[in-house]
Write a structure and sequence with these properties.
single chain, 270 residues, alpha/beta
């Protein structure tokens, strides 16, 4: 799945080049180039595939901005532990300003972390906080590996699962949330992106084998706020359309009927 992470980096690189970019990710271009996706990537097979790619790219840009803001708010509240689950080519340790004493843990399998390390060395990138990589498969006992890396469950943590849960079956999502909750002190925060209802049918039904959309298996529950309350989190749900408009990047298409709760989630541990 690390190739998908390189595709996300390409989207972030393109956004970085915009004059009115919602964020700047100076390392994204290097990740995309090292993965063979810069300056261009294989063109979509048809017009429908092109529209799907644009839709996915738009969602990546909006969710990146949403989670950047969530992390800044968490830091401002005094949280000094950050855990990126399925970190991929995330470069927030390098591109964001962090308060002194911040420890950022990147949890992912060894292959993407090794690839990332080679690019970071090539770019001579310097992290702006204490960055700790945790090479472990999220299907394994990652809490034990995270603890061994120095994570303190007694102190509040901000957890980020960006573009991750859609690839996990429902039982794995439930287990992941239970494990996060077990290591979250009161006041911890969490940022999630969930696949909206119907997204697999719209994007994944005729997706090319091996593409990101072909691997999607999990959509958000009908009421994500109630669902997360059952896991001990006080959550807020936001739609892509709502956040895009707030960021001055409104969707050009009208809503299709009544919009359901959105898949951009911020939550606080009580």
């Amino acid at each position: 799945m690390w190739a998908t992470a390189v595709g996300v980096a390409r989207v972030r690189a393109l956004e970085t080049e915009r004059e009115n970019a919602l964020f700047r990710d100076p390392l994204a271009r290097a990740f995309a180039a090292a993965g063979g996706l810069w300056p261009s990537s294989p063109p979509p097979a048809d017009e429908a595939a092109r529209r799907r790619r644009l839709g996915v790219a738009f969602s990546i840009v909006i969710r990146t901005k949403f989670l950047d803001d969530l992390l800044r708010e968490a830091s401002a509240s005094g949280i000094r532990q950050v855990v990126l689950l399925g970190a991929g080519m995330d470069s927030r340790a390098f591109r964001m300003d962090w308060p002194e004493g911040t420890r950022l843990f990147e949890v992912d399998t060894a292959v993407p972390l090794d690839f990332k390390s080679s690019v970071l060395c090539q770019e001579r990138a310097v992290a702006r906080c204490e960055r700790i990589t945790v090479p472990v498969d999220l299907r394994e006992d990652w809490p034990r590996a995270l603890a061994a890396a120095g994570h303190d469950p007694g102190a509040p943590t901000v957890w980020i699962a960006e573009g991750l849960l859609i690839y996990l079956p429902e039982d794995a999502v439930e287990l992941l949330l239970a494990r996060i909750g077990a290591r979250s002190a009161p006041g911890s925060r969490m940022g999630l992106t969930l696949g909206s209802r119907g997204v697999i049918e719209r994007f994944g039904a005729d997706a090319a084998p091996g593409s990101a959309a072909s691997l999607w298996v999990s959509e958000m529950p009908d009421d994500p706020v109630e669902w997360l309350a059952g896991h001990g989190w006080e959550a807020s749900s936001h739609t892509l359309r709502e956040r895009a408009a707030a960021y001055g990047r409104p969707l050009g298409t009208p809503p299709q009927g009544e919009e359901r709760p959105g898949g951009l989630i911020s939550a606080v541990r009580r």
